[in-house]
Amino acid sequence: MPANKPVKIVMLTGYLGAGKTTLLNHILGNDGGIRAAVIVNDIGEVNVDASLIRDGGLTEAEDIIPLTNGCICCTLADDLANQLSTLADSGDFDYIIIEASGICEPVPIAYTISAFCDEEKAGGEPKLALDNIVAVVDCARMYDEFHGGRDLLADDIDEDDIEALIISQIEFCSTLILNKTDTVTPEQLQELKAIVRSLQKDAVIVEAEQGEVPMDQILDTDRFDFMKAYNSAAWIEAMEHPEEHDDP
Predict the structure, then answer these.
(1) What contacts 183, CB < 8 A, 6 or more positions away?
(2) What span, in angstroms and rounded, lies between the C-alpha atoms of 131 and 113?
(3) How far apart, in Å, do the first and last CA atoms of the chain sit?
(4) How far is CA 247 from the centre of its chain?
(5) 3-state SS string over 160-198?
(6) Which CA distances in Å does 5 have to 30, 88, 91, 97, 220?
(7) d(Cα 197, Cα 192) in Å, to the nearest integer?
(8) Tens of pLDDT along 127-149?
(9) In this structure, which of 11, 45, 67, 156 has its CB flanked by the most CB atoms within 10 Å?
(10) pTM: predicted TM-score of the whole model, two decimal places
(11) Residue 1: inside a domain, yes or no?
């Protein structure tokens, strides 16, 4: 990546078991020469494909797993902005992939990243850009536990309900992966797509089996627009009352 081109940041969100780590391994296992630094909440809970781990495994100095293809996997730092800046300044990476916890709302992380990127831009040539927020939805779970997604349209959803969390992840994204499409019928998939589209009118929807998504749908898309996502009704409330929402 040219020195004057910013390092692109991609954030993966989605409820527990949706397939984020499978998608992550798909990205890390790329053979296209992509150099990515991956940031996760807890490196001990991420099953990085063993065949990708470079000899030596976890480093002693930091929670970092070096991979054979030039990528790394590291733990989310308390100071995310500083961590992003350090990774960008290293010159070793084209992309930074952040896998958010399955139980966290995406907006606090996105806000931190966007604010830092805007600050960098104001100071001159930006070295970082929030490129894409990818929400992963488990089609099978939607049908087994949420009545095909219809539960997400209920009027009596409390902000502490799982449904509210899943809605927030669907609403605040620029690419939406309907994962495990092979576990539902074509008719069920079309119904789920219609429900998801009613909640998220702008994101690109991609169908996938086992997290296998074309890289051009994940990386270097230039899709994410913070203000467009912010202006959805649910996120106006979340940003105006941050004390009611736990940080990731």
Answers:
(1) 139, 140
(2) 11
(3) 30
(4) 16
(5) CCHHHHHHHHHHCCCEEEEECHHHCCHHHHHHHHHHHHH
(6) 21, 11, 11, 17, 11
(7) 8
(8) 899 999 999 999 999 988 888 88
(9) 11
(10) 0.83
(11) no
Query: Which residues on adjacent β-strands are paired with residue 178?
Result: 137, 207
Residue 32 lies in a domain: yes
Residues in the chain: 248
CATH of the domain at 16: 3.40.50.300
Q: Strand (E) positions, the chain?
A: 7-13, 36-40, 64-66, 72-75, 95-99, 128-138, 175-179, 204-207
Q: Which two tokens stand for residue 65?
A: 């797993």
> How far is 224 from 42, CA to CA, in rounded Å?
25
Q: Classify residue 2: in a domain, yes or no.
A: no
Query: Lowest-confidence range among 134-143, 177-186, 220-229?
Result: 220-229
**DSSP reduced 3-state for 10:** strand
* pLDDT score of 60: 36
| Domain count within the chain | 1
